[in-house]
Design brief:
Number of domains: 1
CATH topology: outer membrane lipoprotein receptor (LolB), chain A
Distance between the termini: 28 Å
Strand order of the largest sheet: 5-4-3-2-1-12-11-10-9-8-7-6
Structural class: mainly beta
Radius of gyration: 17 Å
Shape: globular
Largest sheet: 12 strands, antiparallel
Number of helices: 4
CATH class: Mainly Beta
Length: 247
């Protein structure tokens, strides 16, 4: 039971929004902004570019750092577990903490090494699945394609170089993301997850998920989490010590 909760909490980390990426070239950013929120987009790439623009376009691509803190309610096997989360990204570095009555999780990447308070778990890079790969729409090493025919929703699929993919579902009117689904492997078991976004917050021109629910299929159990950000900071200075690997 405790191991399942640990896996669930680790998986939750992949839902935390938006990793900061290197800036796009001015010409690329301009093209993305010009494609902003067009509801007439017909190809997957056009839809993806309109969606990126609806979430900040150039400002999202040029975002240097992000800090998000808030509450999370975890529910697995009928047991509700309230907690709190905090996360920060700066370039390729990141950390996140999830604290609950059952367990605490801390994971840090200092640009070279990754530390996790739950050893033995190997997660896909945070730039491989979920909301973070929206910043990779114009990266030629990532593939933007159609959703499977069985998914009768407007959207697109982004596949990372390592083969992980995320299916994004888009609001017809706003071009903002309504939800997404991902699948990845953790310690030999396949984890599928789906997210439904209820509320956004615009900070420094970047439109970031503020309130969202997430479902995890961990094979033997299904778990749920409800996230609500209470503080979102964009482009604030984060000291390197925040990403230090615990000794």
């Amino acid at each position: 039971m405790k191991r399942s909760i640990g896996l669930f909490i680790v998986s939750c980390s992949l839902s935390l929004p938006l990793i900061a990426q290197p800036a796009a070239s001015p010409s690329t950013a301009s093209t993305l902004d010009k494609s902003a929120a067009s509801t007439k987009a017909s190809t997957p790439m056009e839809t993806a570019k309109a969606t990126l623009a609806a979430h900040g376009g150039d400002k999202l691509l040029r975002m240097k750092s992000l800090v998000v803190k808030g509450s999370v309610d975890l529910n697995t096997m009928g047991q509700a577990i309230p907690g709190a989360f905090s996360t920060a990204f700066s370039g390729e570095k990141y950390f996140f903490d999830i604290n609950s009555a059952m367990q605490q999780l801390k994971q840090v990447f200092d640009g070279r090494e990754t530390f996790s308070s739950l050893p033995g778990f190997s997660l896909p890079p945070v730039t491989s699945v979920g909301f973070p790969i929206m910043s990779k729409v114009s990266d030629t090493s990532y593939t933007v394609g159609e959703l499977p025919a069985t998914k009768k929703r407007k959207g697109f699929r982004i596949t990372a170089p390592d083969g992980f993919y995320t299916d994004f579902y888009v609001d017809e009117k706003t071009s903002q993301i309504k939800g997404y689904e991902s699948a990845f492997e953790v310690s030999g078991r396949v984890v599928t997850t789906s997210v439904e976004i209820d509320e956004f917050q615009t900070v420094e021109g970047v439109v970031i998920p503020k309130k969202y629910s997430q479902r995890f299929d961990l094979g033997q159990i299904t778990a749920y989490a409800n996230f609500k950000a209470k503080e979102i900071l964009v482009n604030t200075k984060i000291e390197d010590s925040a990403f230090a690997i615990p000794k």
